Every structure is written in C-alpha cells, then in structure tokens.
Amino acid sequence: MHLHDRFAEFLSASEIIEATPALLNDQRRRFVSSPDIVLQPNSIESVQKIMRFCFENRIRVTPQGGNTGLCGATVTTEGVLLNLSKFNRIRDINLADNSMTVEAGVILQNAQKAAAEAGRLFPLSLASEGSCQIGGNIACNAGGLNVLRYGTMRDLVIGLEIVLPNGELISHLHPLHKNTTGYDLRHLFIGSEGTLGIITAATLKLFANPLDKATAWVGIPDIESAVRLLTETQAHFAERLCSFELISRFAAELSSEFSNLPLPTHSEWHILLELTDSLPNDSLNGQLAEFLYEKGFTDSVLAQSKQERIHMWALRENISASQRKLGTSIKHDIAIPIGCVADFVRRCAKDLEQNFKGIQIVCFGHLGDGSLHYNTFLPDILSNEAYRYEDDINGTVYRNILACNGTVAAEHGIGIIKKQWLDKVRTPAEIALMKSIKQHLDPYNIMNPGKLLP
Amino acid sequence: MHLHDRFAEFLSASEIIEATPALLNDQRRRFVSSPDIVLQPNSIESVQKIMRFCFENRIRVTPQGGNTGLCGATVTTEGVLLNLSKFNRIRDINLADNSMTVEAGVILQNAQKAAAEAGRLFPLSLASEGSCQIGGNIACNAGGLNVLRYGTMRDLVIGLEIVLPNGELISHLHPLHKNTTGYDLRHLFIGSEGTLGIITAATLKLFANPLDKATAWVGIPDIESAVRLLTETQAHFAERLCSFELISRFAAELSSEFSNLPLPTHSEWHILLELTDSLPNDSLNGQLAEFLYEKGFTDSVLAQSKQERIHMWALRENISASQRKLGTSIKHDIAIPIGCVADFVRRCAKDLEQNFKGIQIVCFGHLGDGSLHYNTFLPDILSNEAYRYEDDINGTVYRNILACNGTVAAEHGIGIIKKQWLDKVRTPAEIALMKSIKQHLDPYNIMNPGKLLP
C-alpha cells in the first residue's frame, strides 16, 4: 500500500495536500524539499495519529510553519513534511494573567493583531512577520527588533503544548508566571528546531500597549560612539529603549537608493533608535532631543511625524531587499558581547578584504542585543556560485567571532547550514547531553533528522 | 584511610571544615543533616577535584549555599556536604552589556549592593536576601517581590559556570542576550536543586536604577476586587508596577501586633503595591492617587515619606515572623492563574475548616504573579507534632490547586518535602525525560540524591 493510502486510513482528505513550490522551496531558494508526502493536519488528534504511525513505521517527519527560516531547518528529502498552517486559532486571551494562547500555525502578525484588539501588545516583531508562524518562532527562538525591551521568543513563552515523537501529548498551556517543579523542559523545546517534537500551541506573555514613541536617526563616526550612545541611553531611559539598530554607511546607502528615500544623516555609521512609553508622555521626543544634544550626539534627526518614523524604519527594513542587487550573499547571524563589537567589525573586515579581494560587507543589526547581520558578497560571482566560497568566508568570520566570545547563531538557529560549527560554541559534554535528550525522546531519529545536531 | 585523609590529599586544610549547627540544621529546624564530611572549596579546581574523586568513588555530594531553603533540598545523611560560601567574589560588572558575573556563594544582598555601586539594579529581592546565596537562588529559581517587573531568577541568568558530576567544567559566562545554538541546557540547571551539577558562577542581567517610587496600601473587600485592581493597574502603569502583594485581614493583624505598627486600612483584604520609574517622575505619587480614586479604590493610603514606605513594607515582611506564635505551620508555596485565585481561596478555606476544626490560615503573597504563601496552623498542636497532619492538609490544599490548573511549587522548589506531588503536575513522559537527563549526567546518582525526583 502507498504511503498516501496508509495516511488516508486515519486522516481526512483535506489533511493530505499537494506539494506546492511555496512549501518545497526554502526562503532563500537555496534548497528544495522532496518529501514523500505533505500533510496538513487540522487537529491535535491527527498530529498524534500521524506521529504514532510514523514512530511505529520509522518514517521521518519534518515540521514546517511559515517556511521563512534561513538555515534550512525545514528542508527534507524524504518522509512526511508536516505543515502546521491549519493550527491557526487564537484559543484564548487572558487579561488578568496578561497572556494569550495561540496555535502554532498562527501567523505572527495575526497574533500581534489579536493582542492589539484586546488592548495589549505582543512584542515579537521581525521582517517576516507577515508570513512566519508562532510555532516556527518558538522552534528557532526568534529575536527581531524589540528584544532589547521584551526579550526573545524564549522570554515570551509561558506554556507549551507539544506532541512527542511517539505521539504522546504534553500540555501546559497555563498562564503561571512562577512554577518550579523539576527540570525546565519547556526551554528544551524552545529553540530545538523541530528535532524533539511538534509544538502545536503556546501560551504567550502580553504587555501594555506603548502609548507614546520617540524615534531618532543618529549619525556617528565609529562603533565606539554607538556603544557609548547605547550605554548612556540605557542608563538614562532604561526599559523605554525598545530598539537600537546599527547600520553601516554602505548598507544605509544601498537602502536609501532602493527605497528612494534620503538618508537623515551622512556619516560612517548610523543608529536608528526608538523609545516607547506605556504611559502617555508628550515630552518623550523633547526628552530624547535634549538627551542627544547634551551627550554630544548632534548629528541627529528626530522623527517629527508618523510619516517620518515610517521612512526611518523603511530605510532599516529595506536593507535586506536592497542588497539583493549585489548577488547571492553569504550571511552571518551573529552575536558578540557589546563591548567587543567595534573590535570585531574592524578585524573581520580587514581579514575578509585580505582573503577575498573586492568582497563587499553589508553590516547592520540589533546592536542593542549585541546581534548583527553580517552579509558578504563576492564581486563578479553569479547567484548560488557564491556558496562555493561559503566555508572559507565562514571560517574567517567565525574565527573572529569566537575570538571575542561570541556566537555563530543569534536568532536564526542552526538548521543544516551551521551544524558543523556547533562544536565550536558547545563543549563535547553539552553536545553529548543534547544527543542523549534527543535519543530518549526520539529513539528512531524520525523527528527532523539531520538538523541542528552534528 | 578515612574520608578526611583522602580529601586532605588534594585539598588545603581550610577547605575541610567543622560541621556547625548553622550548616547542619535546616532553616525551619525540621531536618538535621549528618554528612560524613563538610567541604568548603576555594577554587574551581578544588570543586573539580572533589567531584572527580566522588564520581570515581561513588560518594554522594550535597551542594549548599546560604542554607535558607524551605523544602529540605540541602539536607543529607551521608557523603559530602559541599558548601559554596567561599565562592564569594563579584568577578565582573559590564555596563555595556548590562551584566554582572558573580560567584555562587555571593550573598544576594552583596550582589544587590555591587550592582547599586555601579549605578545599576539587580532586582531579585526576597525575605532571606541577607543570607541566601546566588547559587541557591539559581538552583531553586527564586522569585520574591519584584517578579512582576523583572521576572524570576531564571529570567535574570544569562550565563552559567557549572562543574558536572564527573568533574567536567562547562563555562558560558558571556553576556550574550541572543544565542540559539542547540538545546538550551542552561535552563535545565536553573531550578534543578543541585541534582545535576555544581553551579559555581553566573552572569546576571542588570537594570537601570529606579529613580522614583510610589507605594500604596489599599483596603479591599474581596479578592475579586484585588484582581480588578491588578488588571487595571497593569493596563495603566504597565511595567512600572513592580510589586503587588495580597495580605489577608488575619495576616495583616498578626503582623501589625508583632511589628507594633498600625494598619493603614481596616478591611477584609489588603494590597501593598509599588510603582517604580526609571526616569525622575515627581508626579508618580499623584498619578497613583488619582488612578486609585478614579477606579473607586478609595480606602487607600499612599506612603508620603520614606518612613511611611518602610512601615508598609515592614507590615508585609513581618508576616512570616509574626505567625510563629501560632505554632508550627504547614506551608504551601503555590501559584494559580490569577483569575482563579478568588475561587481557590474560598473553596480551600471551606474544605480545610470542614476537615480540620479550628484551623487557622495565614494567606498572603505575590498576587501579581498569581503566587501565594498559604500557611496553615492547627490549634493546640505543639511544634513539629503538626507535621503528622501534613499529608492530609496538603491533600486538601493541593487538590484545590490542581482543580484550578495551579502548581504546588511556585518559588521554593520541590526538595524532599514535595517529591510525592511532582507526578501530579508533570506527566509520566516528562518525569521519564527528567530521569533520563539525570541518568546521563549523573549515572551513579551521587549528585544530591533523593531530592526533587521521585
């Protein structure tokens, strides 16, 4: 009997779906999946049945959300591609506990909207929010633009509902803010990239809506100045500092041309920073202007209208799109102690330019979290030919990262493309423990095999 | 050769210490330890040597910090009592990353002071802060008074340094705020109550100092009103709400008499709430007064001076001491969804009074986190005789907790006294995974055996 017929015995017709390019091609068109079957279950019971069947028959299962990952964690060449898009309900919004229970397939933007309609904020915000899904955000411990104030996805998850590889259900969708009953298993699943089970729903933290904002674009000569601005802004405005984005001159000019928007300042480096206040605060703009002037950051422009704020953010958000004209990039999603960023950026650029003549570097990111997107482009190399140089370029970049105690994966995960680097940031004892946990939960290695662990 | 002599071969004389009552008696004088030897190592190398030796020789090791735990997690009747008090250095304060690296034996209050001297806040605050140690706070995932704004200890730990049962060192004392490189093992150790390894140091988050405070004592007729006050205060003041403590009339009156301080209000229930602002905000008191008046909470007193604030907090903090005159209490450290607290308190009191004639209930705690201290006293029962009724009383209390999806251990841990309740809040699959993790790291079960896991 064909696999299709076996699944049809216990799934409805609508749960076995056509394999479309949108499901099979990864975000960067680098990998193409070729699963034996694509399933889109519409109930917990169906997920449990699928997992029980696959567990018994040793069939590999690759879970998939919005398919926006950048590290190939949902690429598969066999077994079941398990798409969670039908798990798209907001199950509950609880104002007393400031929490919201949503299913894994809810699109991030829809979760944000549901919170807003209830008069609350769900703060996770990132470039792909219009299509990425909550389950994937949890599986990769997504970060984005508001981590400085609200933390990464890990910090926003209170409870999880998970189907284990053997089909068993673990459900802790309570809104308890304090709970210390044995080893914290929730955090094992967060960031596990689909290798330990299927996340089907989560209880998430909600926050008060910010009522006032102040946004500034600051031109600075070097990263040392950016770090000084960050430290002083945090010491003064504390949690009101919500975003602190670093943009190199090259990245800013690319985006300005692409967006057809003028740059607010002309300098070697740019900072886009935003304060938010959860109480009405008319004077926030004035306070920020005064602060920047007093601290000597005089090459600053404050957004004086919603339109100006939108323009500033468009310049930041369009960097990714604007760099495409440079060809295929070798991307790095890195984090380093903030005090080391300046040194890293200088050393790494020097090393890369020495080893790869004419290399172009688009450097930008969430300096407030010490996290950078560090994308490199080789001249005159067409499309995916660039990947031939990936290992060499990574070697140079990651050597510099490791020298300053940083990490090779800040907010995109490991997937398949960074597996060989895991043992540079984790000790053998840690990797052995990870493998032991994986082996216990997934003895037949059916759950997203080949991802994350070397 | 005696154990003493074996350790003397590789430890200095000052690292093998006398067993004093302060080390052997637990906080509540309920348990007395009788280890074979008490060690107080003064370096990582010594901890590694001790663990290697104990691993090879299958000697049990019980780690101990400030010995302020309430669940018996550091009680032992054999092997090594490993006291971490000599690990008392603040290793580093990093203002760019807003972090601080401290050793496990640093007393919480000293960590708070070191942060304050650097112009920052380390927000963990709890009754035993003058003697409890950071290592113990991490091992138990301590909570306390500021969880509402800053989270529990779990939320405050960025990096850990751990010696594993076999003596291996895992060190991640970096200040990275984003790092997604495989399963999150840090969170396994946080809250593991010394059963997986020895925490020797941690990198902790720092925050801006609050510059203004507003403190109010509010009298309310019932818990429903308290929940309404909480929800509206959070919706309005958001993260500025730092503490929200519930106190029953009985608890308040006990503390008032003990403290020789008048109660600010006379009502069935009391709320002590505090707002903090990280920017100067002269009008915070006025805003809070206006808010309480507008929302109809007219039985309110605002602290008009530092002295008045200290009095209000003394009334809250003296509850534990003031209840001692009632005899030995059967204590419960519970958390429930906030929307269910009113129902729980009513039902549970009714059940207890029905089953235990004349029982007295001292109910207070961190309502803002859904967490309550729920202490019960039987009349005419002297001292530890009360423990004869512990299982029965727990049965009644926990049945009510579980009926509303709550937890039997909010912020004190499981230790030995709650082990038999673990399988009521965790599924068999979860407990099996916990045991598998324990077995992998500690195959000879030498690391704080008999604690936490059933």
Automatic annotation (TrEMBL), chains A, B:
Its cofactor is FAD. Residues 31-209 form the FAD-binding PCMH-type domain. InterPro entries: FAD-bd_oxidored_4_C (IPR004113), FAD-bd_PCMH (IPR016166), FAD-bd_PCMH-like_sf (IPR036318), FAD-bd_PCMH_sub2 (IPR016169), FAD-linked_Oxase-like_C (IPR016164), FAD-oxidored/transferase_4 (IPR051264), Oxid_FAD_bind_N (IPR006094), Vanillyl_alc_oxidase_C-sub2 (IPR016171). Keywords: FAD, Flavoprotein. Pfam families: FAD-oxidase_C, FAD_binding_4. It comes from the Bacteria. Signal peptide: none annotated. Belongs to the FAD-binding oxidoreductase/transferase type 4 family. This is FAD-binding oxidoreductase. It comes from Neisseria cinerea. The lineage of its organism: Bacteria, Pseudomonadati, Pseudomonadota, Betaproteobacteria, Neisseriales.
